[in-house]
Design brief:
Elements lengths: L1 H19 L5 H11 L5 H8 L2 H4 L7 H7 L7 E11 L2 E9 L5 E11 L2 E11 L19
Antiparallel strand pairs: 1-2, 2-3, 3-4
Protein name: Lipoprotein
Keywords: Signal
Organism: Simiduia agarivorans (strain DSM 21679 / JCM 13881 / BCRC 17597 / SA1)
Length: about 150
Amino acid sequence: MKTLTLFAILTFLISCTTASNNSASPLLAYNQYETTLNQANVASKASTYFAHSLLDGKDLMDPGIQSQLLFKDYMARREGNTIQSTRNEEVCLTVNGYDKDNLPITFHLGYALENSIWKINGIEVKFLESTEEFESQAKCPQKTNV
């Protein structure tokens, strides 16, 4: 009986974790954005990862807009992540890494809950002079250019 109860509890926990998708954390949402969104699907899937307020009125078929939504492509490899809660329903995520030329780059992302899903609502991409400029704490984006 204990084995059956334990199995039922584990099954429930696993299903809850799987069903939560990117609602669990902004970092998980970013990881999914990073691995899923690409040039072929950015127009159809942008609303999965970006807040309505960021996309409102934008032509998602415009190559310039698509390029901005695929800002992740500037970073070839990540160095680290930091999350900081700034308000009740807003979290800022800072991602440090390197571009394709192995130069340091940082993303400052703002996330907000939209229908219980963490979505990007602010973006700042910073090209750095050295790794000494990498952030050790999360910072919210200064401005959003989409």
